[in-house]
Amino acid sequence: MLAITNAHILPIDGPEIAAGTILIDGSTIAAVGNGVAVPSDAEVIDAGGQLALPGMLDAHTHLGIHEEGVGWEGSDTNESTDPVTPHVRALDGINPEELGLLDTAAHGVTTAVVLPGSANVVGGLGAIIKTSGRFVDRMVVKAECGLKVAFGENPKRVYGDRKQLPSTRMGVAAVLRETLVQAQVYLQKLERGAQDPDKAPDRDLRLETVGRVLQREIPLLAHCHRADDILTVLRIATEFEVDVILEHATEAHRIVEEIAARQVPCVVGPTFGARSKVELREKTFASLGILAGAGVPVAICSDHPVLPSKYLRLYAGLAVAEGMSEADALRSITLTPAEIMGVADRVGSLSPGKDADIVLFDGHPLELRSRATTVIIDGQRVPA
Q: Which residue pairs from 304-308 have beta carbons closer than 8 angstroms and sit at least 24 positions apart in sequence?
């Protein structure tokens, strides 16, 4: 067993605990609180009053599939050979020894959502992984967490430059609708085939994957920046009765009442940095506080490597400077993204039974000068 003692604990799903103890049994949190009995044979880390936070979760990255300091050899983010590639999986492109992953883990971001890029209308399946490990299959929290789709500038630029569909926003929406309809027909054929094997269709990995969205097994993870693109996402989600998570959602604050009424989650970012394209003209850290204040489930993301994932907590601090509450900001990099992505039973807060992903900070996590002094993932210390 491992015990962290004398820690100021920020469990996220409950009140702060001064001079508390976290007891870890293997890869799981066994107990949290004051007066926790520490077995005599347990390894003890005396936190010395440092703050203990659940390992942070970055809800939108390309960690491990867009390798830092490598070049085209490590660029596996976009299978931009076809606008519809639902059958590709981020998991199959992740290099667990990638430098960005190693940095991210050392700074206390212990879980990451890794997604295909946004070159395609339908980009493929995302995965949720722990950020430290030798074998990616052992790092998996959820192998297939949603189907990435993209609206706006990126797909229309990639395929418009080739003079093929889609070259407009109308074309992007049409391609996605057509794909969803094809999957509906495929599911109908599968249903008939279950009654009469002679009518069963040949297996189609593309439509099989999209069919899981229609059956609400996984959500659409929709890359969208502008308010009009967000509304198109919501329109299509309503038409086909599918679940959707808004990714980036740069102008979501402009239509917050519509998003709040539908309780559609938003994964917002990357917000730091210059406005590099038209879609980003309205980006502001103030958006996060506006959304959270309206009751929208909101997570902050880095879109690594666009912004480094290791600085996730600093983006949350900037959101506080622009009006987000401190509690909402801490939640937006821990429990809320875990809830949005359906893994809150394992990560996002310091609760008995959850994964032992814990970070000790020598100051408040949202303060620039604070440092992660100890990072634990699945009960194991991560090298500094």
A: 304/58, 304/61, 304/62, 304/63, 304/66, 304/100, 304/104, 304/112, 305/62, 305/66, 305/68, 305/100, 306/270, 306/273, 307/269, 307/270, 307/272, 307/273, 308/100, 308/103, 308/104
